[in-house]
Amino acid sequence: MTDRPLRPGDPLRIDSEYVRLGTCNLFMFCEPLQGWRQVRVTDRRTKVDWAHALRDFLGEFYRDAVKIVLVMDNLNTHSPGSFYEAFAPEEARRLTERLEIHYTPKHGSWLNIAECEFSVLQRQCLDRRIDTAAFLGSEVNAWQTSRNAIDSEINWQFKTSDARTKLRRLYPEYLRRDQSLPTPKPNNIHN
Question: How far apart are CA 119 and CA 113, in angstroms?
Fold first, then answer.
């Protein structure tokens, strides 16, 4: 920032310039019925980063589980193939066989509970500039510890019948076969 010279009667003016200090990535894992979430801060968001984050998460919190139901978005890094890029084939297969994966629909991020948690994280913790990844990690850790301590469950109100009505345009073939579904009301919003 540099101060600009003052003329008599003028207020002080400061010229500031945004300096980007870097970026990082957050992986969110949450268990909505338990009111529990875990956030991992990484330097990047590659397939290998995702594979390592998920393997570590499963090993730490679900070591004894035979099958884990995983609901996640359709991001290109979020696929079983990512394990094969990150690990030996035996380890990749072991991890893949432990997962039953369900993807949220494209353009349906509002259905993704992790996205809802990201929104809370943004409002409660990330609503300011954070200069270092280490400080971000400590802030995110404090947020998740606090949020987990109060058992903040997610009260999901969206029912299957609501989804079939609201998502009718996303799944036209499937829904056309079911004539019992109500026709969505037309609106003036165009995608």
Answer: 10
